[in-house]
Amino acid sequence: MFNLLKSDIYRLVHGKMLWVAAIVLVALSVLAAGMMHWVSSPEFLRMTATSFEMTVNVSDGVTGGAGVLGEGDAAAANASAEAAAAVSASGRGLSLDELDTLGAAEAAGSAESEEDSVRDDETASDSAFASSELWDLVADNPEALSDADFEGVSRDMRTLASPADMLGDMAVSGGALAMVVSLVTALFLAQDFSMRFARNLVMDRRGRVRYYGEKLVLVGLLAAFYLAVAALAGAASFAAAGFTYAAASPLGDLALFLGLAWLLAFAYGCTTAVIVWASRSAGAGVAWALVVSSGIAGLLLGQVLLLLGQGEPWIGALEPWMLASCMQNVGNHASTLLATPAAAPLTMAPLAVQVLIVGTAAVALCVVLTFGPLWKRDL
Questions:
Q1: What are the tens digits of pLDDT across the range 333-356?
Q2: How far is 268 from 362, CA to CA, in rounded Å?
Q3: Euclidean distance between CA atoms 296 and 81, whole angstroms
Q4: Where do transmembrane segments lie in this chain (predicted)?
Q5: What is the pLDDT of residues 94-153, one digit of tens each?
Q6: Which pLDDT does position 143 carry in this prediction?
């Protein structure tokens, strides 16, 4: 098994597949950091505020220049404020309940406390509040805004919650990590059949165990490698773009997040390996990676389960236990995996336990299929 593993690693390192996929992950990290840098820049905020001011002025002229926002404009202003708060909060892993709380705090606070939060607060939640307050100031008195106001909001928006939340939002919850691992797994494993490499191996009982066991170990190494690439590329890209963190991730929480992210990426890689071994086709594996490992199929299936759950609650209760749902939850709650409760019936346990159960079960099922029906197939 060890000799097979060394041979596969040599083929990967001296080939293009491993490095092209790594470059794709790095490019995605740079693109994400660049887009967030532009959206949070004072220039973009001022440009958006100017567009919003022009919209308000045109609307006021049509309604006779009353000098106040009508019902439609007020709704638009509120929608813009909520959208700005959601954009700035998305990089910090805030939940919908937390956004509602921020909105209530904004309605209840005085103008003086709101201005102080725009200029002084640099925490994740206050950043969302500051962005929302900016649009209120634009609607009320666009001329009162100064460069310092936009720079303060920009600074708050560029303060992320923690390194774990950054990586979770960038690579884990969106499915990029699992998709890249699955794509490389599909293309590399299919080469054993297209290039007839498997036919040159001794495939008796012990040989099959060594072959399939080594491939599963290789998938685990691929998941670890690309997780490290995503983490390093994300940290470097966001640091170069001027982003900072409101708090450092505790070592234990960061290790837990990375471990669960690796487990889920490994699980998706194992499912892709099973598809390739069952079909002997690289196309089937690539299609599985693009549709399933990316999270698209899981998102659609989850919506169907929630819809059916309106009539049968037990069907809707299955949605949080899907592999795709666990991947998204790990990304969204990267720094609170032990503080966030698991889904029913394990509501007394943390989310980390639920993810560990689902990921382990998925890997175990793939192992059973590999050394069961697939093990007996002629290679």
A1: 999 999 999 988 888 899 999 999
A2: 8
A3: 29
A4: 18-39, 170-195, 216-248, 254-278, 285-308, 351-375
A5: 444 443 444 444 444 444 444 444 444 444 444 555 555 555 655 555 555 667 777 888
A6: 56
Least confident segment among 83-92, 262-271, 300-309: 83-92
State the pLDDT at residue 44.
84
Q: How far apart are CA 279 and CA 266, in angstroms?
A: 20
Cβ proximity of 162 and 335 under 8 Å: yes
3-state secondary structure of 350: strand
Q: Do 23 and 135 belong to one domain?
A: no
Single residue among 157, 189, 217 that ends a domain in this structure: 157
- The secondary structure of 116-134 as a DSSP string is HHHHH--SHHHHHHHHHHH
Q: How many helices (H) and strands (E) does the chain have?
A: 17, 2
User: Predicted confidence band at 74 (pLDDT cuts at 50, 70, 90)?
Assistant: very low
Q: Are residues 123 and 263 in the same domain?
A: no
Collapsing DSSP states into helix, strand and coil, what is residue 341? strand
pTM equals 0.76
Q: Is the link from the previous residue into 250 a cis peptide, with omega within 30 of 0?
A: no
- Number of domains making up the chain: 2
Using pLDDT thresholds of 50, 70 and 90, give the confidence band for residue 207: confident
What is the domain extent for residue 205? 2-33+163-376
Alpha-helical (H) ranges within 109-250 are 111-120, 124-140, 147-157, 163-167, 176-194, 205-240
Q: In this structure, are 10 and 93 located in the same domain?
A: no
Least Cα distance to 320 among 338, 298, 337, 335 occurs for 298
DSSP state of 67: S
Residues 60 and 82 reside in one and the same domain: yes
Strands 244-245 and 159-160, bridge-based pairing: parallel
Q: Is the pLDDT of residue 200 over 50?
A: yes
Statement to judge: residues 178 and 106 lie in one domain: no
